[in-house]
Amino acid sequence: MNQIPFTVAGAERLRAELKELKSVKRPAVIEAIAVARDHGDLKENAEYHAAREQQGFIEGRIKELESALSNSRVIDVTKLNPTGRVVFGCTVDLFDVATEAEVTYQIVGDLEADINKNRVAVSSPIARALIGKEEGEEVTVIAPAGNKEYVISAVRYS
Description:
By secondary structure, this protein is α/β, with parallel strands linked by helices. It has helices at about 10-35, 45-70, 125-130; strands spanning about 5, 70-75, 90-95, 100-110, 120, 140-145, 145-155. It has 2 domains: about 5-75, Transcription elongation factor, GreA/GreB, N-terminal domain (Helix Hairpins, Orthogonal Bundle), CATH 1.10.287.180; about 80-155, Transcription elongation factor, GreA/GreB, C-terminal domain (Chitinase A, domain 3, Roll), CATH 3.10.50.30. It is elongated and about 70 Å long. The mean pLDDT is about 90.
């Protein structure tokens, strides 16, 4: 099976989520199911059905996280010697040529990606365009919404 890349911080976040699911949310939903059973007829018991549905989501997420973490490869970018190149785990400052806006992204594993926190998946069009490039280079990102031109302002390995 293929190894799934994670940053050190991303692997820790997923381990913390897994711990919370197992030690807090799973027992809470089991308790909610028990309480709902006490209310009687299970066929028409909305609380029971909602708790069972929630239990399904929790168990599914636990399996997903356990599988990903067991097949993970944690990459500590601070221990790499990338010599100024954009690599997995680094943070990249970009200058958008069209809008003249600065944007910062960290390239992370697929399960760690969160665009609201400027973490883009290594498999995303922008990350694929940036990998291997150096500070000062102009990059064309081919995306579904159209091509975007960026200049790499800075590359950080923290």
